[in-house]
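Quick question, first post here. What does this chain look like in 3D?
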Amino acid sequence: MNIGIIGYGKMGREIEKIALQKGHNILLKINSKNHHLLNSKNIADIDVAIEFSTPETAFENIIFCINNKIPIVCGTTGWLNKLEEVKNLCLEHPTSFIYAPNFSIGVNLFFDINNYLSKLMSGKKYQFSVEETHHITKKDKPSGTAIKILNDILKNSPYIDNAHSQIQSHRIGETTGVHTIKYKSEIDEIELTHKAHNRLGFAEGALLAAEFIKNKTGFFTMKDIITNLK
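> Answer (accepted):
Ran it through. Tokens below.
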């Protein structure tokens, strides 16, 4: 598979390493200094683009790929106010798009566990809180993963005590990513935590998504990937 990496930072380099190990080709590596190379000629032979850039540039990159009928995997957060626009455009063009706030298989299983637990908590006398910690160079705050966790809880437990629903965000050193959910009552406390040891899980998940959407059309989510795992 021929891959274009848009956003050749720490995640982009991790994706490149795993992709090459799996026998894929990296035809294009775009960063802030060579963004002018992202043009129709250079992207013509790419099977899938993987986008991990910045909240300011992600939407433009996504639209460019969709307009050029290039399937695109996007892991950049902070631009989701335009997600519906991307969905509609994707349906108008014969190409595919997948967005996830987090491509780690472990994190997506963590989402499923929280979904189940938050439904059980509906109407119970529990308060909840969401806390996330990342490295000091992470540009969005709170993380897209934490926002999804919070939104899932509010959706599944509309009557839960949400007095502590504000996300607590921390930026410390080189921390890859820690997300904690707490459900607390007067008599007990339940705590769920996912801790990423490195970027490998994110990169592997993004590559799985790229392999999945090649030669497909439509808008997809990580649920489609998890369902097809064997």
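Residues 135 and 173 are 5 Å apart (CA to CA).
The mean pLDDT is 90.
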